[in-house]
Specification:
The protein is mainly α. Helix content is 76%, strand content 0%. The chain contains 19 helices and no strands.
Length: 433
Amino acid sequence: MRERKAVEHRHLNMSGTAEAAKPPSTLRVLMTNPLYRGVTVAEFFSALGISAAAPQIASFLVKELHASLTVAGLYYLTNLAAPVLGYMVGARSDRTGRRLGLFRLCAIAGVVGWAGIAASTQLWMPFAISVLVLGFAGAASSQLFAAMHDEMTRRPSPANDGVVAVARMAMTSGWVIGPAAGTVVAAHFGLREMLLATAICCGLQIIPLGTLRPQGAERIDNNGEETKGQRPGIRAMRPLLLFTGLYICVYAGEPIKYAYLPIYMDEQLHFASGLRGAIIGIQPLVELALMPLVVMAARRTSALWLMSGAGACGAAANICFSTSTGAPGLFAGQIFMGAVWAVFAALGITVAQRLLPTAVATASAIFLSSPALSAALGGLTGGLGANAFGLPHVFFLPVGFGLIAMFGYAAMASGANRRPPGAVRSSTVPLSG
């Protein structure tokens, strides 16, 4: 009898130890940390507002300020200021460690900028406001992810990568809802009111973070060592710049797709509007569904190898677009693109920060502002390609971009195997397999 009680006591102790050793779930870590929770909600509001305005801004310039279609199209070139201003904000953040302070200033710039555009009476005003004010507003998200990185360095957990993925899923959800919401607001209230709603969303992203002031994490790098807040040199930034350059290649196909796929479906394939909407809308749904699976896969394999596979998926998607004469092929292409963005939405910011661990705000700003350069590259390529090759053959051009990304990330993954001796990983997502 005494032996039986001893066995039961040992069993209870082992069960308690196992329960204590069980890692916390992603949801629990997210909900119990006010910073993570606030960043997730803020990212949703930010994406909701920006994605509502993006498809409507050209219509606003044409209908309210009487711009020509050519001039309205040139507005998107103002986004090229975002990478420069984002880098300046990121460098300042890395020197001072004031992540959330700079985030609030950038968010306020978004409020002022979009409200200013909504009130514009001269055509030059939205262009000037976009360059001088909204360029700073675009750096808000990079400051939030830098603050998350600091907190995760101070509080390491196996669930951290999942927390980042959830925050990115919130951003993706905002991009799913925003365009439809913007269309409804513009139709019922007007284009100026829709832009004012975007300004309100920029202000709402400040509220979930309240008066939080995380301290002490900004001077710690990925190896748990203190840094001096110095600006990194070009040599230290080379892996990040290569990584971001390949990401620009992946992203360059998106402006081509969104410019010409709807025209192809409408004018040449004569699809009904409902079918066109279903084809366009399936991509973000696939992305949301795959993001948790991508995080789990990255823990077992390699983030960079997954990105190489994403480049291949991007090439396959554009082959589908360029060769399909029916809905099934276009649906397949969009599913491939959903897989592409699931990988980069879930892992992109984490990898970028790990490639420049002593300046994570700079890394975040460079990575998150790079789509502006992709838009310029894709717009130029698409415009020239549409004239030269027509539809749907213009979609063969981004196939080349996807292949460049595929081979480039594969080379980075192979190079990442040569890790310095004694390096410590702060993330559960390995860069190489």
